[in-house]
Amino acid sequence: MTNKLSNVNIFKFRVIVDTEQDVFRDIEIETDATFEQLHEAILDAFDFEAGEMASFYMSNEQWEKGLEIPLMDMAVDAALSMKSTKLSDMLSKPSEKVLYVYDFMRMWIFYVELMEVKKDAPSTIYPRVALVYGDAPSQDSKEMDLFGSEFSEEEFTEMHGDVSDEEEGEEDMFESGEDYFDESEFNGSYGSYDDH
C-alpha cells in the first residue's frame, strides 16, 4: 500500500450551475490533476451521469468564452484536451475563472471560479466536495435542443439526415467539429454567492 503524498497544493473551486436558484458546490482538487479529473468531479458533485460531450473555456471577469479545452481532441491539430491538460498549466491564482459546458444538447453551463490555493489536509482524499449549497437540478430537467439556434429542423435534417435516433444525431453533429450552441448563452448572469 502506498502512502498518500503530502504537502501537495490544492485548488479550491466554487462551481455554480446556471439555474434560477443559487446552487453551487465547492470542490477541492490537487493542482496537478487534469481538467478531465475536474470534469468528473463536477459531474459527481452535481449527481450528473457521464457520457455527454463537454468542454472547459478559459474565461474572464465578464464570464466570456475564451480558449477551449475539449473533452476529446476533435481536430488533428488540436493542442489541448482535458486528458492532457493539467489544471496548473492554465490556472495559478484565486479569482481566475473557467466556464464548463456539459451536454451540448441541453447546454448545462457551470461557472467555475478558483477561490483558494492551499496545502492539502492530512489523510484527506482528493478531489472532494468541501461545501454543498442548494439542491442540484435534475440532469434531464433542461429540454434538448437537437437543432441548435442556428438552424431550422429542415436545414438540420438536410445537413445531417433524419435525427430520429438521438445518439446517431449527436455523433453526426460532433464529427463535423462545428459549434452548434448559442454563444449568447454565455452572457447570462449568475447568482451571487457573496451573500450566503
Task: Describe the protein's architecture and organization.
The chain is an alpha+beta fold and 196 residues long. It has a single domain (9-187), classed as MM3350-like (Structural Genomics Hypothetical 15.5 Kd Protein In mrcA-pckA Intergenic Region, Chain A). Helices cover 17% and strands 24% of the residues. It has 4 helices and 7 strands, in the order ββαββαβββαα. It has a 7-stranded antiparallel sheet with strand order 4-3-5-6-1-2-7, covered by helices on one side. Strand 1 (9-17) and strand 2 form a beta hairpin.
> What top-tier CATH class fits best?
Alpha Beta
- Overall pLDDT level: 79
Mind telling me the CATH superfamily name?
A: MM3350-like
- Overall tally of structural domains: 1
Report how far the terminal alpha carbons are from each other: 41 Å
The fraction of residues in strands falls at 15-25%
State the CATH architecture: Roll
The sequence of SSEs as H and E is EEHEEHEEEHH
Radius of gyration: 18 Å
Major beta sheet, strand line-up: 4-3-5-6-1-2-7
* CATH topology tier name: Structural Genomics Hypothetical 15.5 Kd Protein In mrcA-pckA Intergenic Region, Chain A
Portion in helices: 10-25%
Number of helices: 4
Biggest pleated sheet: 7 strands, antiparallel
Q: Tally of extended strands?
A: 7
| Backbone structural class | alpha+beta
User: Which outline best applies?
Assistant: globular
State the low-pLDDT regions, or none.
Answer: 147-153, 163-181, 186-196
